[in-house]
Amino acid sequence: MSGHSKWANIKHKKGKADAQKGKMFTKLGRELVVASRASGGDVNDFRLKIAIDNAKAENVPNENIQRAILKGAGGADGTTYEELRYEGYAPGGVAVMIDILTDNRNRTAGEVRYIFSKNGGNMGETGSVGWMFEEKGQLTILREGIKLTEDDFMLMALEAGAEDLETDEESFVVYTAPDALEDVRQALIDQKVAISEFEVCPTPQNTIEITDADQARKIIRLMDALESHDDSQGVYSNFELSDTLAEEDF
Question: Taking Cα atoms as reference points, which of 158, 160, 151, 162 lies closest to residue 192?
């Protein structure tokens, strides 16, 4: 069992402000359109199923979800979104990856490059940090809904097919092989476990521990700025905060 305070944990701790809800709806809507277009609107397609569940978890209205699925399946309105992954470094040599959905590659590349430079980072070439990550399934479960001890929950997750488990004061994060994510998710649901979020995304093979508070603030400022970009679908990094800094409110 590992217990790192990584970006996903920090982001959850920071919470989601109401002001960000409209932007979140836009991002989720884009992913629904792209997933639907790729699957031809097949709601049994795994990527589209993830997109639908994530939209429902954020309380996106059902009519919005259905409209996005129909839009993707029919290729309506002529807008074509391109999926991109940018890579770079945060202060201190921390690796950063950002998944993008955009209808204007050149505009987005310039804006992302500016965010990196403005916040003390550097945007790199494709592959510059990607080798430090591997694709993993991730399921987030809030502690408040779990009656089991950590050891018992870990055992349940492993028996369901999980590869690893991370914990913090508010949640469990279960890691799986990408093609095992749905089976593990269903096994946990069968055990009455409420899953807050799930996705397949880049996971660092090793992490860099940050012990300096000023450096931590700079890294988190960059991560926040990338996360807030309109075309951003997810931001990933290989840093973790020391136990002391994990208690700080960034």
Answer: 160
For 119-230, where are the alpha helices, taking DSSP H only? 150-159, 181-190, 213-228
Question: Token pair for residue 41?
Answer: 């609107």
60 shares its domain with 168: no
**What are the pLDDT digits (tens) for 201-244?**
899 999 999 999 999 999 999 999 998 898 888 899 999 988 88
Contact 112, 123 (CB under 8 A): yes
Question: What's the structural domain count of the chain?
Answer: 2
Single residue among 78, 96, 122 that ends a domain in this structure: 78
CB 172 within 8 A of CB 141: yes
Q: What CATH number is attached to the domain comprising 119?
A: 3.30.70.980
pLDDT digits (tens, 9 = 90+) for 159-184: 999 999 888 777 888 999 999 998 99
Mean pLDDT, the chain, whole residue set: 86
20: CATH? 1.10.10.200
Q: Give residue 168's domain range.
A: 1-11+84-250
Cα distance between residue 236 and residue 61, in whole Å: 28
| C-alpha closest to that of 156 among 192, 204, 200, 205 | 192
Q: 193: which DSSP letter? A: P
CA–centroid distance for 146 within its chain: 22
